[in-house]
Design brief:
Radius of gyration: 30 Å
Helix content: 25-40%
Number of helices: 26
Low-confidence stretches: 1-93, 97-107, 631-637
Shape: elongated
Structural class: alpha/beta
Length: 741
């Protein structure tokens, strides 16, 4: 938020009502640098010299203005504001005109809250209530109802609005920040309620007969007291010093979620307690009666309406858009408050825009991103996935949108057998009510639409051979239904859906499609994407520091088609490299290839590659005799291993306690630029990856779709195709995620 002492503007110091566009409302343009150079958010701290010249009516630009801006996360960047129509591109200055602009770290950008003790904080009021001999029922009934209503609102918002809107992609940093903070206000209110119950019991425990009249009084108090108080407090919070110390934390979010309404600076919550409290405190003081059910209903309803204002949707019913309709002044729409997050110094009102109209701070905002979406029935490519365990369930955005990114959770004390059995029961239930789980859609190269769809199969289905036919049947059934409803012809097989034991690396699926009476003439193409995975693994190895001097590697999973292709390519490009393969079956016949059945042998090689999951216990058993052994660089004894590179999915860290010089890294993860035209939308959620990352097999299938590959990609991998696929990926902006040793 800019702070400008404007000598020519009567609205000082709140003159900049269209802040992202210009410095102040008196049309003295001083626009920001381009979106790639600087991000300006609403955190204050702007200093401008020659300020009288800056705001002179002759529009003359200052000769030596100094402006300091704050950089928040991506959600508050210029690019985000551009997407929200809050930037006048036609008047953007040149870089020379704005080269004096400097970016500094914002007050809130590094905020991290420890959520480890949230459950204890939630249980704390029970202990205090017990000590003070006051009822815990009102406190926990209200608190739990608020949390449930918030989570339910998030779920419905994702399902009906965010899921298929690939142009509204929320930054991972924003999701992490809001996920850590959205319950703080609710828990704080629970603690604030305790002394009120003790000091004013009549405000909570009056006779139930007053509930109806108390509801009417609370509504009147809200309209007459809370609405004007909030408007005044909100404008006060937008003063630069308050914006920087408190309210700027909320405004880090430009594109919003329903729960953004609850994400505030800790101290700001106390401001809102004072502002919202009169809704039920004033009627109690006047009439001496109130009931906790009305207080609870008010807070839950308040949260829901506040969440409605932070939904990224456009709602334009005539009662709000008709010129002479009173409702445009009495109740807001999401676009009204989204305009506040885009413009910062406009649309301050809570739920009733009349206050902005009265004080001249109303500003029209139009949300246009959904107008540019491709048709809802367009679907050019489907990547077929499956459940990968309990942690995978927990990443579903419908359940928890905040967990969509980042590594899968691990359940240290839960045996895999128990976890998989539970997932099997959930999968069986899901198959009773639906045939598949549909994920968000995304845009490919501005013209095509892709989507991830999971069949309702869990790990046990890929462990028991008796279930393989059922898995393959579900895959073909999904292909048939998507082709029938959307005309989709391009399909990719994810993870275990192309396992050699299940369907011979996708070959059986290809044969089943060609033999199916409904599909054989539909030009269906089935791809595994493994060519791109093999290319990614090869380049990740070849780009290792010191790889040119490496004499040997240890390979687990080299008999698989990806490992086989990587080994063949390595032996061609690096003829002196020796490869030690952990396997009982010998599939590679080469003088530099040897086999072993001793997993502990991996310690004798500086680089280990894992392409097959063996189970944590197997590694622990093999490594346990050597834990804590010496590994001085001078001696390299008794073990040489320094790095384990793992391309298995999902990635499960190995317990390397006692091996201080060994690092375990996940490889075969590609990155794409956030502003890339190649992929837009939520192509990256629910995979245990960070934002803007994608597995190579998924990316390879997308590239096949873009290049309109006419043949299937199943069975063995061609090394020449690896080279071609990698070149295409690089041209589209894909790159291996860098390893940090």
């Amino acid at each position: 938020e800019f702070s400008v002492d404007c000598d020519a503007c009567s609205m000082h110091p709140l003159c900049s009502d269209v802040l992202p566009l210009q410095l102040c409302s008196c049309s003295h343009n001083f626009h920001r640098d381009n979106a790639d150079e600087i991000a300006i958010n609403s955190l204050g701290g702007t200093n401008i010299s020659n300020k009288s010249n800056m705001c002179m009516p002759n529009n003359k630009k200052p000769e030596a203005a100094t402006l300091t801006s704050s950089v928040g996360d991506a959600s508050s960047s210029s690019a985000a504001i551009l997407a929200n129509n809050a930037y006048n591109n036609s008047t953007r200055p040149t870089k020379d005109e704005t080269k004096h602009i400097k970016a500094v770290t914002s007050t809130h950008s590094d905020h991290v809250r420890n959520t480890k003790y949230d459950l204890l904080w939630f249980l704390g009021p029970a202990l205090i209530c017990y000590a003070l001999n006051t009822s815990i029922v009102p406190i926990y009934a209200i608190g739990i109802a608020r949390i449930i209503s918030t989570r339910l609102t998030l779920t419905l918002h994702y399902l009906f609005f965010d899921k298929d809107n690939y142009l509204n992609k929320l930054p991972q940093k924003q999701l992490q920040r809001e996920g850590e903070d959205y319950v703080v206000g609710t828990i704080l209110h629970m603690y604030a309620q305790i002394p009120l119950q003790v000091l004013f019991p009549g405000m909570f425990f009056s006779d139930p007969s007053v509930i109806a009249i108390s509801a009417k009084r609370a509504l009147i108090a809200h309209v007459l007291l809370v609405e004007p108080l909030y408007y005044a407090a909100h404008r006060w919070l937008h003063l630069p010093e308050n914006m920087k110390s408190m309210h700027g934390f909320h405004h880090l979010s430009i594109s919003t979620l329903p729960s953004t309404s609850l994400v505030q600076n800790f101290h700001e919550h106390f401001v809102y307690i004072a502002v919202f409290g009169p809704a039920f405190f004033a009627p109690f003081l006047l009439y001496g009666e109130m009931h906790w059910t009305i207080i609870g209903a008010y807070l839950v309803l308040f949260d829901l309406i506040n969440a409605y204002g932070h939904m990224n949707i456009k709602y334009r019913h005539p009662i709000f858009t008709f010129k002479y309709s009173p409702f445009q002044y009495l109740f807001y729409t999401p676009e009204f408050h989204l305009g506040h997050h885009a413009f910062f110094r406009a649309n301050y009102a809570l739920f009733m825009p009349i206050w902005d109209h009265m004080f001249g701070s109303w500003r029209k905002y139009t949300k246009t991103d959904t107008d540019k979406l491709l048709p809802a029935n367009k679907q050019d490519f489907v990547f077929i996935g499956h459940n990968a365990g309990l942690a995978h369930f927990l990443t579903c955005p419908e359940w928890d949108v905040y967990a969509a990114y980042g590594p899968f959770r691990t359940f240290k004390y839960l045996p895999y057998s128990v976890e998989f059995l539970f997932c099997n029961l959930v999968g069986a239930f899901c198959r009773l009510i639906m045939s598949c789980y549909t994920c968000s859609r995304y845009m490919i190269n501005e013209t095509l639409i892709g989507r991830v769809i999971c069949i309702c199969r869990t790990p046990i289905d890929y462990i028991k051979p008796s279930r393989y036919p059922l898995v393959n049947k579900d895959i073909v059934k999904l292909i048939k239904s998507q082709n029938k409803h959307y005309g989709t012809k391009c399909f990719g097989l994810g993870n275990l859906n192309k396992m050699k034991q299940v369907n011979d690396g996708g070959q059986l699926i290809s044969d089943m499609v060609k033999a199916d009476p409904e599909l054989k003439d539909k030009d269906i193409r089935v791809w595994t994407g493994d060519t791109m995975t093999a290319a990614s693994v090869y380049h990740q190895l070849s780009e290792l520091p010191g790889f040119d001097t490496l004499d040997s590697i240890f390979f687990v999973g080299a008999n698989g088609k990806i490992g086989n292709a990587v080994c063949k390519h390595l032996l061609t490009t690096k003829p002196n490299l020796k490869i030690r393969i952990y396997s009982l079956s010998h599939t590679l016949d080469h003088p530099n290839v040897t086999y072993t059945s001793d997993l502990a042998d991996l310690l004798n090689h500086r680089v280990v590659v894992l392409g097959k999951q063996l189970g944590v216990r197997k590694y622990s058993k093999a490594l346990s005799p050597f834990r804590g052994a010496s590994s001085k660089k001078q001696e390299l004894t008794p073990y040489k291993c320094r790095v384990i590179l793992d391309y298995t999915v999902p990635y499960i860290p190995i317990d390397l306690t006692g091996f201080h010089n060994i690092e375990h890294h996940q490889i075969a993860v590609l990155e794409t630029s956030p502003d890339s035209n190649f992929l837009k939308g939520h192509f990256d959620i629910g995979f245990g990856l960070e934002q803007h990352q994608i597995y190579p097999c998924h990316a390879g299938c997308i590239i096949n779709t873009l290049y309109d590959r006419k043949t299937d990609e199943v069975g063995e991998i061609c090394v020449k195709d690896m080279i071609t696929m990698w070149k295409r990926g690089q041209e589209l902006g894909l790159r291996n995620r860098p390893l940090k040793f």
